[in-house]
Design brief:
With 117 residues, the chain is of the alpha+beta class. Helix content is 37%, strand content 20%. Strands 2-3-4 form a 3-stranded antiparallel sheet. A two-stranded parallel ribbon has the order 1-5. It starts with a strand and ends in a 5-residue tail after the last strand.
């Protein structure tokens, strides 16, 4: 399962492998079908997901932890801990504000040394 780890530190970045447009198209179709089948987009917060983000935030010592679902136009936060308003209430951002789109496209881990930059 792809994941993203972003924290303010001096961690090294991991580059995603190059994928052809055909690879991306096929992978994207399967991913979006699975996302629709999950029926998690635009659902209310749930305790189980909130426990996960709280645990991740505490274990990693990071100010923000998210469970993000990425569709074609946006990322939806099924759960979030530490986001400021208005993002906390909106529970989504456009893909232009998303690290997760790179993880979804490449299906490989992405480490961001400093999300603020």
């Amino acid at each position: 399962m792809p994941f993203l780890l972003a924290r303010s530190s001096t961690a090294a970045s991991v580059a995603a492998p190059d994928l052809t447009p055909d690879d991306l198209f096929l992978r994207e179709g399967y991913r979006l079908a699975a996302l629709r089948q999950s029926r998690l987009l635009d659902t209310r917060p749930e305790v189980a997901f909130d426990r996960l983000t709280t645990l991740a935030q505490r274990l990693l010592g990071v100010p923000v932890a998210l469970v993000s679902l990425v569709d074609r136009e946006r990322q939806f936060f099924k759960s979030q801990q530490g986001l400021a308003e208005p993002l906390a209430s909106a529970r989504e951002t456009p893909l232009s504000h998303s690290f997760c789109k790179y993880v979804a496209a490449s299906a490989t881990p992405l480490v961001v040394a400093d999300a603020r930059t």
